[in-house]
Amino acid sequence: MARRAPRHAEAARNDHALLEAAKKVLAVDGAHASVATIAARAGVGIASLYRRYRSKDELFQHLCALALDQWIRVAERGLEHDDPWEGLAHYIEACVEFSGGALGPLAGTIAVTDEMSAKFTRSDELLGRLVARAHEAGALRPDASAMDISLLIEQLGKSPLIDQLDRQGRGDLIDAARSARKRTIAIALDGLRPRHPRLPGTAPSPTLLSERWEHALAESPKQP
Amino acid sequence: MARRAPRHAEAARNDHALLEAAKKVLAVDGAHASVATIAARAGVGIASLYRRYRSKDELFQHLCALALDQWIRVAERGLEHDDPWEGLAHYIEACVEFSGGALGPLAGTIAVTDEMSAKFTRSDELLGRLVARAHEAGALRPDASAMDISLLIEQLGKSPLIDQLDRQGRGDLIDAARSARKRTIAIALDGLRPRHPRLPGTAPSPTLLSERWEHALAESPKQP
DNA sequence: CTTAAACGGATAATTTCACTTCGTTTGAGA
DNA sequence: TCTCAAACGAAGTGAAATTATCCGTTTAAG
Protein backbone atom coordinates (compact mmCIF):
# COMPACT_ATOMS: atom_id res chain seq x y z
CA MET A 1 0.00 0.00 0.00
CA ALA A 2 3.03 2.18 0.37
CA ARG A 3 3.76 5.33 -1.52
CA ARG A 4 0.34 6.86 -1.74
CA ALA A 5 0.14 10.15 0.09
CA PRO A 6 3.02 12.53 0.01
CA ARG A 7 0.78 15.45 1.04
CA HIS A 8 -2.39 13.74 2.07
CA ALA A 9 -3.13 15.90 5.08
CA GLU A 10 -2.91 19.14 3.13
CA ALA A 11 -5.14 17.72 0.42
CA ALA A 12 -7.85 16.84 2.93
CA ARG A 13 -7.62 20.25 4.55
CA ASN A 14 -7.93 21.93 1.17
CA ASP A 15 -10.93 19.85 0.22
CA HIS A 16 -12.72 20.95 3.35
CA ALA A 17 -11.73 24.57 2.85
CA LEU A 18 -13.01 24.44 -0.73
CA LEU A 19 -16.44 23.16 0.25
CA GLU A 20 -16.71 25.69 3.04
CA ALA A 21 -15.66 28.50 0.71
CA ALA A 22 -18.00 27.37 -2.05
CA LYS A 23 -20.95 27.46 0.32
CA LYS A 24 -20.05 30.94 1.50
CA VAL A 25 -19.39 32.39 -1.95
CA LEU A 26 -22.55 30.81 -3.28
CA ALA A 27 -24.51 32.51 -0.53
CA VAL A 28 -22.99 35.88 -1.27
CA ASP A 29 -22.65 35.88 -5.06
CA GLY A 30 -25.62 33.74 -5.97
CA ALA A 31 -25.74 31.56 -9.04
CA HIS A 32 -22.89 33.34 -10.81
CA ALA A 33 -20.26 32.55 -8.21
CA SER A 34 -16.98 31.97 -10.05
CA VAL A 35 -14.48 29.21 -9.43
CA ALA A 36 -11.73 31.82 -9.07
CA THR A 37 -13.58 33.47 -6.20
CA ILE A 38 -14.20 30.15 -4.50
CA ALA A 39 -10.58 29.05 -4.78
CA ALA A 40 -9.34 32.41 -3.55
CA ARG A 41 -11.67 32.35 -0.56
CA ALA A 42 -10.48 28.86 0.29
CA GLY A 43 -6.90 30.06 0.06
CA VAL A 44 -5.93 27.49 -2.55
CA GLY A 45 -5.02 27.58 -6.22
CA ILE A 46 -7.60 26.99 -8.89
CA ALA A 47 -5.85 23.80 -9.91
CA SER A 48 -6.52 22.29 -6.52
CA LEU A 49 -10.21 22.70 -7.16
CA TYR A 50 -10.04 21.02 -10.55
CA ARG A 51 -7.89 18.22 -9.23
CA ARG A 52 -10.74 17.17 -6.97
CA TYR A 53 -13.75 18.02 -9.12
CA ARG A 54 -13.80 17.57 -12.85
CA SER A 55 -15.97 20.65 -13.30
CA LYS A 56 -17.72 23.45 -11.52
CA ASP A 57 -20.98 21.52 -11.75
CA GLU A 58 -19.47 18.49 -10.04
CA LEU A 59 -18.35 20.65 -7.12
CA PHE A 60 -21.82 22.10 -6.77
CA GLN A 61 -23.46 18.69 -6.96
CA HIS A 62 -21.22 17.45 -4.19
CA LEU A 63 -22.09 20.52 -2.16
CA CYS A 64 -25.79 19.83 -2.61
CA ALA A 65 -25.40 16.27 -1.44
CA LEU A 66 -23.61 17.44 1.69
CA ALA A 67 -26.26 20.06 2.38
CA LEU A 68 -28.98 17.45 2.04
CA ASP A 69 -27.12 15.30 4.55
CA GLN A 70 -27.17 18.23 6.92
CA TRP A 71 -30.92 18.72 6.45
CA ILE A 72 -31.52 15.05 7.14
CA ARG A 73 -29.35 15.05 10.24
CA VAL A 74 -31.11 18.12 11.64
CA ALA A 75 -34.53 16.59 10.99
CA GLU A 76 -33.50 13.41 12.78
CA ARG A 77 -32.36 15.42 15.77
CA GLY A 78 -35.66 17.28 15.70
CA LEU A 79 -37.56 14.02 15.90
CA GLU A 80 -35.52 12.98 18.92
CA HIS A 81 -36.88 15.97 20.82
CA ASP A 82 -39.60 15.06 23.33
CA ASP A 83 -41.56 18.25 22.71
CA PRO A 84 -42.99 18.18 19.16
CA TRP A 85 -42.97 21.97 18.86
CA GLU A 86 -39.42 22.35 20.13
CA GLY A 87 -38.36 19.67 17.68
CA LEU A 88 -39.92 21.45 14.72
CA ALA A 89 -38.76 24.88 15.82
CA HIS A 90 -35.18 23.73 16.23
CA TYR A 91 -35.33 22.10 12.83
CA ILE A 92 -36.47 25.31 11.19
CA GLU A 93 -33.94 27.42 13.03
CA ALA A 94 -31.11 25.07 12.16
CA CYS A 95 -32.05 24.89 8.48
CA VAL A 96 -32.23 28.64 8.27
CA GLU A 97 -29.03 29.04 10.23
CA PHE A 98 -26.71 26.96 8.08
CA SER A 99 -27.82 28.95 5.07
CA GLY A 100 -29.46 26.01 3.38
CA GLY A 101 -31.19 28.59 1.25
CA ALA A 102 -27.87 29.36 -0.35
CA LEU A 103 -28.34 26.39 -2.63
CA GLY A 104 -31.65 27.62 -3.96
CA PRO A 105 -30.09 29.63 -6.79
CA LEU A 106 -28.43 26.46 -8.00
CA ALA A 107 -31.75 24.85 -8.78
CA GLY A 108 -32.11 24.37 -12.50
CA THR A 109 -28.47 25.16 -13.23
CA ILE A 110 -27.02 21.75 -12.40
CA ALA A 111 -28.19 18.23 -13.17
CA VAL A 112 -29.79 16.32 -10.31
CA THR A 113 -27.82 13.20 -9.43
CA ASP A 114 -29.48 10.04 -8.17
CA GLU A 115 -27.79 10.56 -4.85
CA MET A 116 -29.35 13.99 -4.58
CA SER A 117 -32.89 12.91 -5.35
CA ALA A 118 -32.69 10.00 -2.92
CA LYS A 119 -31.61 12.32 -0.14
CA PHE A 120 -34.24 14.81 -1.14
CA THR A 121 -36.92 12.17 -0.71
CA ARG A 122 -35.59 11.09 2.65
CA SER A 123 -35.43 14.68 3.88
CA ASP A 124 -39.01 15.29 2.78
CA GLU A 125 -40.21 12.23 4.59
CA LEU A 126 -38.57 13.30 7.84
CA LEU A 127 -40.05 16.78 7.62
CA GLY A 128 -43.45 15.22 7.01
CA ARG A 129 -43.11 13.28 10.23
CA LEU A 130 -41.98 16.36 12.17
CA VAL A 131 -44.99 18.30 10.95
CA ALA A 132 -47.48 15.45 11.57
CA ARG A 133 -46.23 15.07 15.10
CA ALA A 134 -46.60 18.78 15.78
CA HIS A 135 -50.10 18.76 14.31
CA GLU A 136 -51.18 15.85 16.50
CA ALA A 137 -49.90 17.62 19.58
CA GLY A 138 -51.78 20.78 18.60
CA ALA A 139 -48.51 22.70 18.73
CA LEU A 140 -48.65 23.88 15.11
CA ARG A 141 -51.48 25.82 13.51
CA PRO A 142 -53.60 23.20 11.74
CA ASP A 143 -53.73 25.07 8.43
CA ALA A 144 -49.93 25.08 8.00
CA SER A 145 -48.60 22.24 5.82
CA ALA A 146 -45.14 20.78 5.40
CA MET A 147 -44.89 22.74 2.16
CA ASP A 148 -45.63 25.95 4.01
CA ILE A 149 -42.76 25.13 6.33
CA SER A 150 -40.40 24.39 3.45
CA LEU A 151 -41.29 27.66 1.80
CA LEU A 152 -40.84 29.54 5.04
CA ILE A 153 -37.39 28.03 5.45
CA GLU A 154 -36.52 28.95 1.88
CA GLN A 155 -37.78 32.48 2.43
CA LEU A 156 -35.81 32.94 5.64
CA GLY A 157 -32.79 31.05 4.43
CA LYS A 158 -31.22 33.85 2.49
CA SER A 159 -30.30 37.08 4.19
CA PRO A 160 -29.77 39.79 1.59
CA LEU A 161 -28.58 42.20 4.23
CA ILE A 162 -25.93 39.93 5.73
CA ASP A 163 -24.75 38.79 2.32
CA GLN A 164 -24.32 42.33 1.19
CA LEU A 165 -22.52 43.52 4.33
CA ASP A 166 -20.25 40.55 3.75
CA ARG A 167 -19.58 41.62 0.20
CA GLN A 168 -18.75 45.13 1.37
CA GLY A 169 -16.42 43.87 4.04
CA ARG A 170 -18.46 45.48 6.83
CA GLY A 171 -17.57 42.84 9.38
CA ASP A 172 -18.40 45.35 12.11
CA LEU A 173 -22.10 45.29 11.31
CA ILE A 174 -22.55 41.60 10.67
CA ASP A 175 -23.10 40.62 14.28
CA ALA A 176 -25.85 43.19 14.60
CA ALA A 177 -27.43 41.99 11.38
CA ARG A 178 -27.27 38.42 12.54
CA SER A 179 -29.03 39.03 15.82
CA ALA A 180 -31.58 41.20 14.03
CA ARG A 181 -32.29 38.24 11.79
CA LYS A 182 -32.82 36.00 14.80
CA ARG A 183 -35.69 38.29 15.71
CA THR A 184 -37.21 38.06 12.26
CA ILE A 185 -37.07 34.29 12.50
CA ALA A 186 -38.66 34.36 15.93
CA ILE A 187 -41.52 36.45 14.57
CA ALA A 188 -42.13 33.95 11.79
CA LEU A 189 -42.02 31.03 14.21
CA ASP A 190 -44.58 32.71 16.43
CA GLY A 191 -46.78 32.99 13.39
CA LEU A 192 -46.74 29.20 13.11
CA ARG A 193 -48.33 28.63 16.52
CA PRO A 194 -52.05 27.78 16.79
CA ARG A 195 -54.82 30.30 17.53
CA HIS A 196 -54.33 32.49 14.48
CA PRO A 197 -56.86 33.28 11.74
CA ARG A 198 -56.90 30.84 8.84
CA LEU A 199 -54.27 31.10 6.16
CA PRO A 200 -55.44 32.26 2.73
CA GLY A 201 -56.00 29.76 -0.09
CA THR A 202 -55.17 26.08 0.13
CA ALA A 203 -51.92 24.35 1.04
CA PRO A 204 -49.42 24.60 -1.85
CA SER A 205 -48.58 21.50 -3.85
CA PRO A 206 -45.32 19.72 -3.03
CA THR A 207 -44.37 19.64 -6.70
CA LEU A 208 -43.58 23.34 -6.48
CA LEU A 209 -40.24 22.68 -4.86
CA SER A 210 -39.24 19.59 -6.80
CA GLU A 211 -40.04 20.82 -10.31
CA ARG A 212 -37.69 23.72 -9.95
CA TRP A 213 -34.75 21.37 -10.12
CA GLU A 214 -35.66 20.23 -13.62
CA HIS A 215 -33.23 21.58 -16.10
CA ALA A 216 -34.28 24.91 -17.57
CA LEU A 217 -36.26 24.83 -20.79
CA ALA A 218 -35.16 26.68 -23.88
CA GLU A 219 -35.56 30.37 -23.13
CA SER A 220 -35.04 32.46 -26.24
CA PRO A 221 -35.70 30.69 -29.52
CA LYS A 222 -33.17 32.21 -31.87
CA GLN A 223 -33.71 31.80 -35.56
CA PRO A 224 -31.38 32.98 -38.37
CA MET B 1 -43.24 75.83 -29.24
CA ALA B 2 -43.86 73.93 -32.43
CA ARG B 3 -41.62 71.25 -33.84
CA ARG B 4 -40.66 69.40 -30.74
CA ALA B 5 -42.06 65.90 -30.67
CA PRO B 6 -42.30 63.85 -33.81
CA ARG B 7 -42.61 60.58 -31.86
CA HIS B 8 -43.35 61.74 -28.37
CA ALA B 9 -45.98 59.15 -27.54
CA GLU B 10 -43.76 56.23 -28.45
CA ALA B 11 -40.93 57.69 -26.42
CA ALA B 12 -43.09 57.93 -23.32
CA ARG B 13 -44.35 54.41 -23.80
CA ASN B 14 -40.81 53.12 -24.16
CA ASP B 15 -39.65 54.94 -21.07
CA HIS B 16 -42.37 53.28 -19.06
CA ALA B 17 -41.64 49.88 -20.56
CA LEU B 18 -37.96 50.30 -19.77
CA LEU B 19 -38.56 51.04 -16.09
CA GLU B 20 -41.00 48.18 -15.79
CA ALA B 21 -38.58 45.80 -17.48
CA ALA B 22 -35.66 47.00 -15.39
CA LYS B 23 -37.56 46.29 -12.20
CA LYS B 24 -38.48 42.82 -13.36
CA VAL B 25 -35.04 41.89 -14.64
CA LEU B 26 -33.44 43.24 -11.50
CA ALA B 27 -35.69 41.02 -9.43
CA VAL B 28 -34.84 37.96 -11.44
CA ASP B 29 -31.16 38.44 -12.27
CA GLY B 30 -30.04 40.34 -9.20
CA ALA B 31 -27.28 42.90 -9.18
CA HIS B 32 -25.70 41.69 -12.42
CA ALA B 33 -28.70 42.39 -14.60
CA SER B 34 -27.42 43.54 -17.98
CA VAL B 35 -28.68 46.46 -20.03
CA ALA B 36 -29.15 44.15 -23.01
CA THR B 37 -31.55 41.97 -21.05
CA ILE B 38 -33.48 44.97 -19.81
CA ALA B 39 -33.82 46.50 -23.26
CA ALA B 40 -34.87 43.17 -24.75
CA ARG B 41 -37.49 42.63 -22.07
CA ALA B 42 -38.83 46.11 -22.68
CA GLY B 43 -38.99 45.36 -26.39
CA VAL B 44 -36.83 48.33 -27.33
CA GLY B 45 -33.34 48.76 -28.71
CA ILE B 46 -30.38 49.36 -26.45
CA ALA B 47 -29.94 52.81 -27.90
CA SER B 48 -33.35 53.85 -26.61
CA LEU B 49 -32.17 53.07 -23.13
CA TYR B 50 -29.01 55.12 -23.50
CA ARG B 51 -30.86 57.99 -25.09
CA ARG B 52 -32.80 58.45 -21.87
CA TYR B 53 -30.19 57.50 -19.27
CA ARG B 54 -26.57 58.37 -19.66
CA SER B 55 -25.52 55.13 -17.98
CA LYS B 56 -26.75 51.96 -16.39
CA ASP B 57 -26.26 53.54 -12.97
CA GLU B 58 -28.44 56.50 -13.85
CA LEU B 59 -31.27 54.16 -14.85
CA PHE B 60 -30.98 52.31 -11.58
CA GLN B 61 -30.90 55.51 -9.56
CA HIS B 62 -34.08 56.67 -11.25
CA LEU B 63 -35.64 53.31 -10.53
CA CYS B 64 -34.76 53.62 -6.86
CA ALA B 65 -36.33 57.05 -6.64
CA LEU B 66 -39.54 55.72 -8.15
CA ALA B 67 -39.60 52.75 -5.79
CA LEU B 68 -39.14 55.08 -2.82
CA ASP B 69 -42.09 57.11 -4.08
CA GLN B 70 -44.12 53.95 -4.09
CA TRP B 71 -43.10 53.10 -0.53
CA ILE B 72 -44.07 56.58 0.60
CA ARG B 73 -47.42 56.43 -1.13
CA VAL B 74 -48.24 53.06 0.39
CA ALA B 75 -47.29 54.28 3.87
CA GLU B 76 -49.52 57.31 3.47
CA ARG B 77 -52.41 55.10 2.46
CA GLY B 78 -51.70 52.90 5.47
CA LEU B 79 -51.99 55.90 7.77
CA GLU B 80 -55.35 56.78 6.26
CA HIS B 81 -56.73 53.46 7.48
CA ASP B 82 -58.92 53.76 10.58
CA ASP B 83 -57.70 50.48 12.04
CA PRO B 84 -54.01 50.83 13.02
CA TRP B 85 -53.32 47.14 12.52
CA GLU B 86 -55.01 46.97 9.14
CA GLY B 87 -53.03 50.03 8.10
CA LEU B 88 -49.72 48.47 9.06
CA ALA B 89 -50.60 45.06 7.63
CA HIS B 90 -51.63 46.52 4.29
CA TYR B 91 -48.43 48.56 4.21
CA ILE B 92 -46.31 45.46 4.74
CA GLU B 93 -48.25 43.41 2.23
CA ALA B 94 -48.04 46.13 -0.38
CA CYS B 95 -44.30 46.66 0.09
CA VAL B 96 -43.68 42.96 -0.21
CA GLU B 97 -46.00 42.68 -3.15
CA PHE B 98 -44.44 45.21 -5.47
CA SER B 99 -41.10 43.49 -5.03
CA GLY B 100 -39.53 46.42 -3.28
CA GLY B 101 -36.93 43.94 -2.15
CA ALA B 102 -35.72 43.73 -5.70
CA LEU B 103 -33.72 46.89 -5.13
CA GLY B 104 -31.83 45.47 -2.19
CA PRO B 105 -29.06 43.96 -4.34
CA LEU B 106 -28.42 47.43 -5.75
CA ALA B 107 -27.35 48.75 -2.39
CA GLY B 108 -23.68 49.61 -2.47
CA THR B 109 -23.39 49.30 -6.23
CA ILE B 110 -24.76 52.73 -7.13
CA ALA B 111 -24.18 56.16 -5.65
CA VAL B 112 -26.97 57.56 -3.46
CA THR B 113 -28.42 60.74 -4.89
CA ASP B 114 -29.76 63.55 -2.70
CA GLU B 115 -33.22 62.82 -4.02
CA MET B 116 -32.93 59.22 -2.88
CA SER B 117 -31.80 60.01 0.65
CA ALA B 118 -34.51 62.63 1.12
CA LYS B 119 -37.16 60.13 0.12
CA PHE B 120 -35.57 57.50 2.28
CA THR B 121 -35.88 59.77 5.29
CA ARG B 122 -39.49 60.58 4.53
CA SER B 123 -40.35 56.92 4.09
CA ASP B 124 -38.72 56.06 7.41
CA GLU B 125 -40.66 58.75 9.18
CA LEU B 126 -43.98 57.48 7.85
CA LEU B 127 -43.19 53.90 8.85
CA GLY B 128 -42.28 55.16 12.31
CA ARG B 129 -45.71 56.72 12.61
CA LEU B 130 -47.46 53.57 11.38
CA VAL B 131 -45.64 51.50 13.96
CA ALA B 132 -46.19 53.95 16.81
CA ARG B 133 -49.90 54.05 16.08
CA ALA B 134 -50.12 50.26 16.07
CA HIS B 135 -48.19 50.09 19.34
CA GLU B 136 -50.50 52.58 21.03
CA ALA B 137 -53.54 50.59 19.93
CA GLY B 138 -51.97 47.40 21.27
CA ALA B 139 -52.35 45.83 17.85
CA LEU B 140 -48.65 45.10 17.40
CA ARG B 141 -46.48 43.07 19.75
CA PRO B 142 -44.71 45.65 21.93
CA ASP B 143 -41.23 44.21 21.40
CA ALA B 144 -41.32 44.64 17.61
CA SER B 145 -39.68 47.85 16.39
CA ALA B 146 -39.91 49.68 13.08
CA MET B 147 -36.53 48.20 12.21
CA ASP B 148 -37.90 44.71 12.78
CA ILE B 149 -40.69 45.54 10.34
CA SER B 150 -38.25 46.86 7.75
CA LEU B 151 -36.16 43.74 8.01
CA LEU B 152 -39.22 41.55 7.75
CA ILE B 153 -40.24 43.35 4.59
CA GLU B 154 -36.76 42.96 3.18
CA GLN B 155 -36.75 39.28 4.05
CA LEU B 156 -40.13 38.64 2.47
CA GLY B 157 -39.56 40.98 -0.44
CA LYS B 158 -37.57 38.60 -2.57
CA SER B 159 -39.02 35.32 -3.64
CA PRO B 160 -36.25 33.02 -4.81
CA LEU B 161 -38.76 30.44 -5.94
CA ILE B 162 -40.85 32.76 -8.09
CA ASP B 163 -37.77 34.42 -9.56
CA GLN B 164 -36.37 31.08 -10.55
CA LEU B 165 -39.57 29.75 -12.06
CA ASP B 166 -39.62 32.97 -14.01
CA ARG B 167 -36.11 32.40 -15.26
CA GLN B 168 -37.02 28.88 -16.32
CA GLY B 169 -40.12 30.05 -18.13
CA ARG B 170 -42.41 27.90 -15.99
CA GLY B 171 -45.32 30.29 -16.22
CA ASP B 172 -47.62 27.40 -15.34
CA LEU B 173 -46.30 27.18 -11.80
CA ILE B 174 -46.01 30.86 -11.01
CA ASP B 175 -49.60 31.33 -9.90
CA ALA B 176 -49.26 28.47 -7.45
CA ALA B 177 -45.99 29.89 -6.15
CA ARG B 178 -47.53 33.31 -5.75
CA SER B 179 -50.45 32.10 -3.68
CA ALA B 180 -48.10 29.93 -1.64
CA ARG B 181 -46.10 33.04 -0.87
CA LYS B 182 -49.24 34.84 0.29
CA ARG B 183 -49.51 32.17 2.96
CA THR B 184 -45.92 32.65 4.06
CA ILE B 185 -46.57 36.35 4.39
CA ALA B 186 -49.73 35.71 6.38
CA ILE B 187 -47.76 33.51 8.77
CA ALA B 188 -45.21 36.24 9.33
CA LEU B 189 -47.91 38.85 9.87
CA ASP B 190 -49.57 36.66 12.47
CA GLY B 191 -46.23 36.51 14.22
CA LEU B 192 -46.38 40.29 14.62
CA ARG B 193 -49.57 40.25 16.69
CA PRO B 194 -49.40 40.68 20.48
CA ARG B 195 -49.47 37.83 23.04
CA HIS B 196 -46.32 36.08 21.89
CA PRO B 197 -43.19 35.35 23.94
CA ARG B 198 -40.58 38.13 23.90
CA LEU B 199 -38.27 38.45 20.93
CA PRO B 200 -34.62 37.59 21.54
CA GLY B 201 -32.04 40.35 22.04
CA THR B 202 -32.76 44.05 21.69
CA ALA B 203 -34.28 45.98 18.82
CA PRO B 204 -31.75 46.35 15.95
CA SER B 205 -30.22 49.74 15.24
CA PRO B 206 -31.67 51.73 12.33
CA THR B 207 -28.16 52.35 10.98
CA LEU B 208 -28.12 48.77 9.76
CA LEU B 209 -30.24 49.56 6.77
CA SER B 210 -28.77 52.94 5.91
CA GLU B 211 -25.10 52.06 6.10
CA ARG B 212 -25.50 49.39 3.49
CA TRP B 213 -25.99 52.04 0.85
CA GLU B 214 -22.54 53.48 1.44
CA HIS B 215 -20.30 52.72 -1.46
CA ALA B 216 -18.35 49.50 -1.02
CA LEU B 217 -14.92 49.83 0.52
CA ALA B 218 -11.84 48.69 -1.33
CA GLU B 219 -11.97 44.91 -1.41
CA SER B 220 -8.79 43.52 -2.89
CA PRO B 221 -5.81 45.87 -2.61
CA LYS B 222 -3.80 45.19 -5.75
CA GLN B 223 -0.22 46.29 -5.85
CA PRO B 224 2.23 45.93 -8.75
C1' DC C 1 -43.23 66.93 -48.51
C1' DT C 2 -39.69 68.14 -45.22
C1' DT C 3 -37.13 67.27 -41.31
C1' DA C 4 -35.90 66.70 -36.56
C1' DA C 5 -36.61 63.40 -33.21
C1' DA C 6 -36.67 58.76 -32.08
C1' DC C 7 -35.81 54.10 -33.41
C1' DG C 8 -33.22 49.38 -33.39
C1' DG C 9 -29.46 46.57 -33.98
C1' DA C 10 -24.56 45.73 -35.51
C1' DT C 11 -20.20 46.80 -33.48
C1' DA C 12 -16.16 47.98 -30.63
C1' DA C 13 -13.51 47.58 -26.53
C1' DT C 14 -13.12 45.57 -22.28
C1' DT C 15 -13.93 42.28 -18.84
C1' DT C 16 -15.05 37.84 -16.91
C1' DC C 17 -15.11 33.01 -16.85
C1' DA C 18 -14.18 27.97 -16.88
C1' DC C 19 -10.59 25.37 -17.49
C1' DT C 20 -5.35 23.97 -18.72
C1' DT C 21 -0.58 23.91 -18.54
C1' DC C 22 3.56 24.10 -16.17
C1' DG C 23 7.38 24.69 -13.11
C1' DT C 24 7.87 24.20 -7.95
C1' DT C 25 7.26 22.26 -3.30
C1' DT C 26 6.47 18.71 0.02
C1' DG C 27 6.93 14.78 2.96
C1' DA C 28 6.52 9.50 3.53
C1' DG C 29 9.31 5.65 2.80
C1' DA C 30 13.85 3.65 1.48
C1' DT D 1 19.40 11.65 4.13
C1' DC D 2 17.68 11.24 -0.31
C1' DT D 3 14.10 10.31 -3.71
C1' DC D 4 10.07 11.06 -6.39
C1' DA D 5 5.17 10.87 -7.03
C1' DA D 6 1.56 13.51 -5.47
C1' DA D 7 -0.05 17.87 -4.61
C1' DC D 8 0.55 22.74 -5.11
C1' DG D 9 -0.24 27.87 -6.94
C1' DA D 10 -0.46 30.98 -10.54
C1' DA D 11 0.00 32.57 -15.23
C1' DG D 12 -2.15 31.61 -19.59
C1' DT D 13 -6.13 30.64 -23.11
C1' DG D 14 -9.97 31.03 -25.89
C1' DA D 15 -14.88 31.73 -25.62
C1' DA D 16 -18.72 34.35 -23.94
C1' DA D 17 -20.71 38.39 -21.85
C1' DT D 18 -21.17 43.35 -21.03
C1' DT D 19 -21.32 48.40 -21.45
C1' DA D 20 -21.66 51.87 -24.47
C1' DT D 21 -21.39 53.97 -29.29
C1' DC D 22 -22.37 54.50 -34.17
C1' DC D 23 -25.22 54.74 -38.05
C1' DG D 24 -28.75 53.98 -41.44
C1' DT D 25 -33.95 53.86 -41.15
C1' DT D 26 -38.65 55.16 -39.67
C1' DT D 27 -42.14 58.23 -38.01
C1' DA D 28 -45.30 61.96 -37.68
C1' DA D 29 -46.01 67.12 -36.86
C1' DG D 30 -46.04 71.25 -39.54
TrEMBL record, chains A, B:
It holds the Pfam family TetR_C_43. The keyword Metal-binding does not apply. Residues 34-53 bind DNA. Keywords: DNA-binding, Transcription, Transcription regulation. SUPFAM superfamilies: Homeodomain-like (SSF46689), Tetracyclin repressor-like, C-terminal domain (SSF48498). Residues 12-71 form the HTH tetR-type domain. The keyword Metal-binding does not apply. This is HTH tetR-type domain-containing protein.
